Amino acid sequence: MENIGELIRSLRKEKKLSQAALAQQYGMSRTTISGIENNTIAEVGIRKVEAILNGFGYELTAVPRQSTRPTLDTLKKVNFHE
């Protein structure tokens, strides 16, 4: 969620919209927009986030997690080769 909040803030600023203007556009409070952007809101409806992202031309998608976490040895090998 933190990355989504950062993305929404970035997109809003690119469009030169205030939090209040974005909130009004989607029938939300400015506090809700601030909470989404700062990842401080306890719960936010997925439809709200999806509507905002769609408005900016983005699509909310889900991707599978890695089935296992990398081991320390794997991370060392990856960092060594970079």
Automatic annotation (TrEMBL):
Pfam families: HTH_3
Keywords: DNA-binding
SMART domains for the chain: HTH_XRE
Domain HTH cro/C1-type: start-end pairs: 8-63
GO-annotated cellular components: cytosol
CDD domains: HTH_XRE (cd00093)
Entry protein name: Transcriptional regulator
Biological source species: Pseudomonas prosekii
